[in-house]
């Protein structure tokens, strides 16, 4: 049984009637209105069915009513008078609505029903117990209702407020109200188990790879803009690599969206952006991201068939103008735009937002415009559109800066937008009107949740005759018109229902779900923009490449599925041994060193050795009868050595048996290929340690009788190395890492316990003690034992620039060091590589998990490499260390602090930036004294300097007291300094000192440097403005372009501009209230939200 918890009837239902009105079960209209709330869906059919039961206590344990029809489906009531098997017997009634004959229903059937089940008194239909629910009935869930409908005793006893029990004379009526609802999308109340987006909609979704926010929504919107997709496909990418080329990565995403029946991944695409983390999505909005993506693609389209496609699709023109009222003078500038940002706050709908955008501002009174040749004039200032692009991207400003919270917040106000809009009235009279400027909605990008989280999805109409679809990451579903418009306007729900009274209502957070970007297409351009996509529109090279990849993936999948039938055989040869520098004959499982690159064979476990050997011989070009294969085993002393050769005389011997019997503790086979094997002698491998090159490598093998002497090897080695006969050598046995022993030349191999597969290392004897001292003084190794110790402790360190992009001056490179070596040696090696003074290098360790900066290394500690690498629980074979090339010695830097201070003087202008290197114990006051020696203070001024930071929002100074130690100021920091004005220094108790900041139109678009200013009692703003002009050192012409606004923390609204006869002293200033100067930013140093520009590299 499918169960729903009982809902108390006093907590459910909804207007139009009072919840406590007594309603009769037989008054179908009133009862339905009370217990079946309007869920906002069209009703297909409504039926009430009544079933009378007598002799309750003698009823069967399970009963079904007769069938009745509703909405083209057969239904019945399913009753367990004494509870079904999931509840304690005899004290509960269980009752369900049951789909009568699911087996006879057509395949894939479903029915969406809202229903109420009622048990009532046969004499008084106002005495009843009721529960209601809604459900999508399908073959897997064809009954739905209430296992714990009510306690049986409550039905047989008189309940408070009633005159008689519900079950009287052992009889009762069971009534079901059924409302079958229309399901135009086919997915109403769907649980989406086994849902197939491609089958249901013809489209597939994009995988959510985390933190990519709005990207999936935007990509689906761009993909469905067929003209754009075709243009992207025309970018030549045959020689590109997908993780380095945005164009190719985007082509691949688009191709997979076309052809795949599964959700498509975007990892390659985000990698191609060249971002170090996906945080970039959080720091920038969809408009910036879209703009930068299109710029990148536009540059790739130059000199191709697609050149100009993006401008043609998305670029319109607007004119900013100032037109004098009384004289014939107009100043205007025409600008291109790719999207339009529209206000939501205070706007009822999209028309209001457009009207607000083109609203004319009067420049009159004290705010007159200085017209060239005409002096100060009354003028109209505004924006008018000259043309809109075929595809119009409208950004709705849902995110704003809240002064009180010092943070961005989301605007969830209701803001309506239509399916069709005529933009003619917002166009310049001179605009081309040969075609109507009517636009139709084709895309709605939606954000659900608050600023710090939530979810993004897109609603898109893929072509003019298609139904609307919802692209929600990996799932695509059809949606209704209401889901496109009404549900994304924001604000309070408009269906008149009180959320608390709506059972199972679609998410009470609905008002936090609203549109933040709209895509309109000009009606006259729809056929061209969305013209059908043809097979030939996909480039042949892309098809070929992706088809090959698909086949490779299928082969790999098959390989994985068949993996249990195969094992891997790695083969060491004399050639691979000659290139090996390390322990044993090859590296396999060394913790700090990558494994050797060896010839590898994938072999069926049941393949016979004879067949396998034949394959190996053929691969390496040997006759079969001239090779032997030895199995390497893990010896107890942790070495991996050839142990025994595989027997040649067993024709049925399989590769799996060889592995199991000869190398039992290994998953794979490790083999050594021995050409031209002799008989009756032991096989010894030789390695040469060359002191001058500090290298160790294999020089092949030799054979010896057990009885011969170790010293007999010396003439053999001299001959092989082509050295003068009699060259003195030292021989060492490589027993295991950490145990390399000098051998006695006069001992036999048997006495020295040498066996097949053992390794002997030799070096030229260095009798000259000066030569040995010479090597060791350079940090080099004079003998094999020391060098083997280095090998045992060697690690690969990767060095990357900390802040700079990788380039010729800041390369990424590797260095091999011993864990026993120290910081100084590492710095010297890196300095030598970078050709930069080692003392002027600073290093930072990284987190092994994600490569981000961890902590700066202190030279004074001179830690060992082992300490620098530790502690790492991941134990990587390589460690990444970040480096910085400094201009100063790190010795100074460890005791001193490097700071830069931007000087704004007394007139609040950024004049210069001064660097300082001061002891960390210096105070901010000391820093001010050093600064005073470098800057020019005003004659007759105060001579006093204030050092400060700027608040995150760019609106206030964060002043230092002067006593802070500069070593304690968090890093990184932007410091500013100004000369304190005489006016401020001499302000008395009746004056107010307030904060002032610069912005341009929008409060979040701050620029320049905030400053302090004195407000005087009773002073009209016309006089205050003159003092501000003097404080800023502005001309009359310059100050005329400024507007002034009081920014209050307590109110969250647009700035209130100040008139000249206002007295701002009378304002009750809260500590965070500030005066805003609204003027054009000429500094080029906008600091809105303090972010770096977003850049896509690929």
TrEMBL record:
Write down any Gene Ontology CC term: nucleus
Classification via InterPro entries: MATH/TRAF_dom, Papain-like_cys_pep_sf, Peptidase_C19, Peptidase_C19_UCH, TRAF-like, USP, USP7_ICP0-binding_dom, USP_C
Q: Where is the USP domain?
A: 204-523
Q: Keywords for this entry?
A: Hydrolase, Nucleus, Protease, Thiol protease, Ubl conjugation pathway
What Gene Ontology molecular-function terms does this entry list? cysteine-type deubiquitinase activity; metal-dependent deubiquitinase activity
Signal peptide stretch: none
Subcellular compartments = Nucleus
Q: What is its EC number?
A: 3.4.19.12
Q: Give the family from UniProt.
A: Belongs to the peptidase C19 family.
- What is the designated name of this protein? ubiquitinyl hydrolase 1
Species of origin: Amanita muscaria (strain Koide BX008)
